[in-house]
Amino acid sequence: MSDLASTASQIYQSALSVIEAIEPRIANATRQELADQRASLKLIASENYASLPVLMTMGTWLSDKYAEGTVGHRFYAGCQNVDVVESVATEHARELFGAEYAYVQPHSGIDANLVAYWAILQHRIESPALAALGAKNVNDLSESDWETLRRSFNEQRVMGMSLDVGGHLTHGFRHNISGKMFHQKSYGTDPQTQLIDYDKLLADAREFKPLILVAGYSAYPRRVNFAKMREIADEVGATLFVDMAHFAGLVAGKVFTGEEDPIPYAHVVASTTHKSLRGPRGGFVLATQEYASSVDRGCPMVLGGPLSHVMAAKAVAFAEARRPEFATYASAVADNAKTLAEGLLRRGVQLVTGGTDNHLVLLDVGSFGLTGRQAESALLDSGIVTNRNSVPHDPNGAWYTTGVRIGTPP
Ligand code: PLP
Prior knowledge:
Layout: H1 3-22, H2 24-39, E1 41-42, H3 52-58, E2 69-70, E3 73-74, H4 80-97, E4 101-103, H5 109-132, H6 143-154, E5 157-161, H7 177-181, E6 183-187, H8 198-208, E7 212-216, H9 226-236, E8 239-243, H10 248-252, E9 268-272, E10 283-287, H11 289-295, H12 298-301, H13 308-321, H14 324-346, E11 350-351, E12 360-364, H15 372-381, E13 384-385, E14 387-389, H16 397-400, E15 403-407
Parallel strand pairs: 1-13, 5-6, 5-7, 7-8, 8-9
Antiparallel strand pairs: 2-3, 4-10, 9-10, 11-12, 12-15, 14-15
Helix pairs in contact: 1-2, 3-13, 4-13, 5-11, 8-9
Bound molecules: pyridoxal-5'-phosphate.
């Protein structure tokens, strides 16, 4: 154990004894979680192990500070240190991903997606509508102007990957606010290859004319061509929004480059920090300069006070991801997924899309006469933690499922 890790471990042990004096059940559950994590093989595609510096940065008095607003423009006094924290975090995020603008306040991936959606609505709908009404900002609008604006927000269309084939709830699922807020149409995958069919997507987008085209996934074991996605978005006048929550680590680690790197092609990108990126639990948004001032309005539009301690931990995680070791880690994640997929295929396991070229493998366990739920618990009994997941058009529904998703980031 390095000196740093051993000091950290001592600090944690002391912290736990302090917690124990107040609520022993919490101290015990925390200790037990560490023991469980170390005693099992974690293969959950959306989880990871944050480093000790990241974990330690979250457990500080920065948590006590309210800092609504943006750097240098806060609605509370005494935010000078949070200003430093937020500036450092955004600087690292911009440098790490080569983005024009970064916003690190969202508390989670869903928050980041909501900030992104509202920023796009503000930029594409609200700003032209305000200009047409001769208003400078929303405060100048009358109640009836507001009614018109609200209606035009509601009439917007979003097109994202269907939850059935690996998209996320926030990409327009009917029981998520994204599916209620917008008219939505989802795109699927080719029934034979189970891959995104870009020609079909283009044809559907021409017909549906979305304001927002969403690219990104939670359970699609392949890379996406963002150049093609941008061409489709441009062709139909949509804003390209990429949710890279799952694969941000592979972008940061330069496994996804060229047309597989979303940053040069997307107008707005949202992400989590805690999955393949290996940071604290949280979210962030990247954008072109054109969308920057709309994203900056994440608070008060969607968020309240930022979690200053978590923004600090994001800064540490981004700094870690800028080191050469992170690129080695990220390529190992992709190599391990490929090796795992090859091993499974050799043993006769059916894989969605026939393999992987990212960080996850989706097993179709139906041919073994199992549901995903049965396979998930059998694996858990063997000390392997995974999660059951639907396969495309799953006959067993979202609770029992026919699939198991295995990921290599942890
Ligand atoms: N976007 C995608 C693609 C995800 O897979 C997830 C989480 O699973 C999220 C967003 C939401 O992240 P969070 O759980 O941090 O809100």
